[in-house]
Write the structure tokens for this entry.
Amino acid sequence: MSKQSIFGRIAQLTRANINNLLDQAEDPSLMLDQLVRDFTNSIAEAESAVAQTIGNLRLIEQDHAEDVAAAADWERKARAASGKADELRAAGNTVDADKFDALAKVALGRQLSAEKEAKDAEPTIAAQTQVVDRLKTGLTQMREKLDQLSSKRDELNARAKSAEAQSRVADAVKSIDLMDPTSELSRFEDKVRREEARVLGQQELAASSLDAQFEGLEDLDEQTEIEARLAALKLGA
């Protein structure tokens, strides 16, 4: 399974889910939560597919290791059979020596077969290793995107709540403006000031009347003095 077949299919499903959410979105917060859940599920699906691909690679690697080990084992057996044949031939037992040489040839044939299978598997292992590396990188990128999406979701939710709170405060301030109790206080203050002005007017009028009375007393005193002096003049005459 290639990287494109895994992530391409998941990307198509993810885009379809996003478009569907955007089309049906009523509550942005719920939409973002659902988007995070869908992307998390997509990652889980990708992880399962990648795990299967890695498992297949490990099986191939195990078979390759077994073929390499088998080739080494058959080589050891061929050497042992060939060595035994040489011993027997040196002892003059050519019949048994030929048998062991035949066994050595069989072992060498098995060695060649195991080496061929191991060699044939190496390009597949190399290619699959590259695929697995790319898939792991893709998964890492998806997890990073999920972290970014989660952070963005939290940021947008916080901003939405802040905007909602600011809207409520603005509405409250507007209500206070419409029902401002200080306007009543201003009216009462005007009334008090008018009353204070009336009292000041009365006091001023009272002061004016008192001044007039004192002026009258001064005129009376002057007239009395005149009358007294006139009486004195008459007595002197």
